[in-house]
């Protein structure tokens, strides 16, 4: 035992008496010194005494869609990191087509007596879904926080990226490059983020171009989320003569690039493409993807803080917190080769309201 004490003391650069006080959880040791001794234990491979092991404050459910889209693992990772200092341990529940449904995961989490649940892009974002499931949870009461999507009448905090502004900024970026015939590809219209993107796209197109409402309907393609959905929708838009495409996700944007190349077109020389999310690795695609960045870190930390406040009885405001997207300019957008005769940009164009970031 004495040899162990001397090893730990040497590693932590403290006296053996100090090590003994820390191991026996006695007072009189500065917090930074206590932490140095505990770190020395970990480095030397010694198991911490049971009395010194940090007890979990409880479990928190984290329900996310499939992990194929890299934006969802990004949310999960940051939420897990933000929960760690609070003492709560996340229980990750991922959904796959034909797999365990959200309601089934919730029942499993309730059986584990979780202290709260964070939903990322869940059924709360689906206007066709029954939202009474969430009211039932909050009535238990069980604290819940929703990320990306909003449903009125649910007494819970909501955290979202401003999808309308994201679409407007993407259109403004393409218009500034001389594009006038700009298409939109996004998911099914029953989802709140999709509805907001469509609204922002149409508002920007009406303000910045001469494209008619009838043409706007033809330039709006609602498809399945993912690469395949983006590829199919982009093919239809290319048939209608678009020179730029705004996409509802990075994966859809990669599908649009694939569709262009299958026709022998070059991105961005023949077609400019803007994604959404700035999910990991988008800076390393070919070409590097211009995209609207979701502030994932800020959103995830805000969601965790709101949930912990709810759990601790502090009562986080039951409203929606909107976070501003950021235009990240890379290699998938460029100046239009020729300005179209009809539907081109208007002469007066306001400057985009967010700073473009080159990455």
Question: Can you offer a commentary on this structure?
Answer:
- It contains twelve helices and 13 strands.
- By secondary structure, it is of the alpha/beta class.
- The N and C termini lie far apart (55 Å).
- The protein has helices spanning 2-12, 16-23, 31-44, 71-83, 102-111, 132-138, 163-176, 192-208, 213-219, 227-239, 250-262, 296-311; strands spanning 58-64, 88-94, 116-120, 144-147, 158-161, 182-186, 220-222, 244-247, 272-277, 290-293, 320-323, 326-329, 357-358.
- A seven-stranded mixed β-sheet has the order 7-6-8-9-10-12-13, with helices on both faces.
- The protein is 40% helix and 16% strand.
- From the spread of the alpha carbons, the general shape counts as elongated
Biggest sheet features: 7 strands, mixed
Q: Helical proportion? A: 25-40%
Going by helix content, strand content and strand pairing, the class is alpha/beta
Question: What is the CA-atom radius of gyration, in angstroms?
Answer: 25 Å
Calculate the mean pLDDT score and round it. Answer: 90
N-to-C span: 55 Å
Task: Report the sheet-strand fraction.
Answer: 15-25%
Question: Strand sequence of the main sheet, in spatial order?
Answer: 7-6-8-9-10-12-13
Order of helices and strands: HHHEHEHEHEEHEHHEHEHEEHEEE
Low-confidence stretches: 339-343, 347-355
Specify the number of helices: 12
Number of strands: 13
């Amino acid at each position: 035992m004495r040899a162990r004490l001397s090893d730990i003391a040497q590693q932590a650069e403290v006296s053996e008496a100090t090590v003994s006080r820390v191991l026996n959880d006695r007072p009189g040791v500065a917090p930074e010194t206590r932490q140095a001794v505990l770190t020395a234990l970990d480095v030397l491979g010694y198991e911490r005494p049971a009395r010194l092991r940090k007890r979990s404050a409880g479990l928190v459910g984290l329900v996310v869609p499939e992990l194929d889209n890299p934006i969802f693992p990004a949310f999960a990772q940051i939420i897990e990191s933000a929960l760690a200092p609070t003492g709560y341990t996340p229980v990750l529940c991922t959904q796959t087509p034909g797999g365990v449904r959200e309601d089934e995961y919730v029942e499993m989490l309730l059986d584990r007596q979780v202290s709260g649940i964070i939903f990322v892009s869940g059924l709360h974002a689906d206007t066709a879904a029954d939202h009474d499931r969430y009211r039932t949870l909050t009535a238990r009461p069980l604290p819940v926080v929703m990320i990306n999507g909003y449903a009125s009448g649910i007494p819970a905090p909501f955290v979202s990226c401003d999808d309308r502004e994201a679409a407007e900024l993407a259109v403004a970026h393409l218009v500034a490059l001389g594009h006038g015939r700009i298409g939109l590809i996004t998911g099914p219209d029953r989802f709140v983020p999709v509805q907001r993107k469509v609204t922002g796209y149409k508002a920007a197109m009406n303000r910045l171009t001469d494209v008619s409402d009838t043409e706007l309907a033809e330039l709006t393609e609602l498809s399945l989320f993912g690469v395949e959905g983006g590829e199919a929708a982009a093919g239809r838009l290319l048939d209608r003569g678009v020179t730029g495409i705004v996409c509802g996700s990075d994966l859809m944007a990669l599908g649009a690039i694939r569709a262009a190349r299958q026709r022998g077109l070059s991105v961005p020389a023949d077609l400019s493409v803007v994604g959404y999310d700035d999910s990991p690795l988008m800076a390393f695609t070919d070409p590097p993807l211009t995209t609207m960045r979701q502030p994932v870190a800020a959103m995830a930390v805000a969601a965790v803080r709101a949930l912990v406040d709810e759990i601790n009885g502090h009562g986080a405001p039951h409203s929606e917190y909107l976070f501003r997207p950021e235009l990240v300019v890379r290699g998938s957008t460029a100046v239009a080769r020729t300005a179209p005769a009809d539907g081109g940009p208007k002469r007066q164009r306001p400057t985009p309201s967010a700073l473009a970031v080159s990455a």
